[in-house]
Structures are given as C-alpha cells and as structure tokens.
From TrEMBL:
It is found in: Cell membrane. Signal peptide: none annotated. The lineage of its organism: Bacteria, Bacillati, Bacillota, Clostridia, Peptostreptococcales. It is a multi-pass membrane protein. Coiled coil: none annotated. This is Chromate transporter. Keywords: Cell membrane, Membrane, Transmembrane, Transmembrane helix.
Length: 187
C-alpha cells in the first residue's frame, strides 16, 4: 500500500465534502472508492469496518468515517486533518448559503433544482445500502438477511426507537458470533 501526505489527505476530504450532497450515505461510497479502489490505501473490507464503526458512534457518519480513515492512514494527526477537511466545506457553504438563500428561494427553477436533487440522492442512497448489504451478506447470508429484514420491519411498523433496534441487533450479532467462534475453536 502506498503512503499519502497530510496535504493530499486534507484536499481529498475537502473536495469530497465540498461536492457531495446528501449526507453520510452519499459521501461514504465516494470515500470508499477514493481510498480502497482508486488509491488502494485501505482494503475494501477494512473500509467497511471503518464505516460500521463510524455508524455506531455519535455524530455525523461522514465526519466519523473521515476521522477514522485519517486515523487509520496517519494516526491522530491524520484524524485531525480529515476532521478539519470535512467540516470546513460545510461551514463555508452554509455561511454563504445563509446570505444567498433568502434572496433566491422564491425563484421557480431554484426550487425545482433543489427538489430534483432529492430523487438523485435517494438513488445514491439505495445503491449504497444495496452494495453494503451485498458485501456484508456474503459471509453470513441467512443470519444477516434475517437480522436486516427484521430490523427494518420492527423499525417501520412499530414506534420502537431506532437506537434500541441497532443496539439489540448489535448484541444479537455479538452473541451469535462469539458463540459461533467458540464452537469453531472447540472443533
């Protein structure tokens, strides 16, 4: 695997966070492509682990993924570099939009453009979830599929808080794979 400078790391994350709209699930595939496929700095399975850890932590997933990727590549200085590179575009864009928004929101084509972005973002989110599910279900298809579908059904049809569904799913996975590993070790 090749090395990367702090400057390159900063500009890659600054660029990704400047031009990608839609939040964590739209930024994460771009990060994975950049660091796993294009630059071959982090193995794609390790990148999925980074994304899983980023999802479980508090705060925005895109920022968490950036921090963890930076930490993996360059330690705590890399994490800090990626954090700054990830939040600066947001601060700059929101500051500019604050002053511009009030003057342009009533223009019809601006409204249409913003509304049409929603459809494109939905498509990107669908493909992100599909690709993540496909890779994660490769090892334990039946268990993963049952857990994923049951989590969706419980979340969609009940008023149970999502955090409880995630925590219980994580505990189930931990128990199943802890005991499954012990049984494999006994054989």
């Amino acid at each position: 695997m090749q090395n990367i400078s702090f400057m390159d790391l900063f500009f890659i994350f600054f660029k990704i966070n400047s031009i990608t709209f839609g939040g964590g699930y739209t930024i994460v595939p771009v990060i994975i492509e950049e660091f796993s496929q294009k630059r071959n700095l982090i193995d794609s399975n390790e990148m999925l682990d980074i994304v899983a850890i980023a999802q479980s932590g508090p705060g925005p997933m895109a920022i968490n993924t950036s921090i963890l990727t930076g930490y993996r590549l360059k330690g705590w200085k890399g994490a800090l570099t990626c954090l700054l590179a990830s939040i600066l575009p947001c601060i700059i864009i929101i500051s500019i939009l604050y002053y511009v928004y009030a003057g342009i929101i009533d223009i019809k084509w601006i409204k249409s453009a913003l509304e049409s972005m929603g459809g494109a973002i939905s498509a990107v989110l669908f493909f992100t979830v599909f690709n993540m599910a496909k890779k994660n279900l490769a090892k334990h298809k039946i268990f993963g599929l049952i857990l994923m579908v049951s989590s969706f059904v419980i979340g969609y049809f009940t008023n149970i808080n999502t955090i409880y569904i995630i925590a219980i799913s994580g505990l189930i996975g931990l128990m199943v794979f802890t005991f499954a590993k012990e049984e494999d070790d006994v054989k």
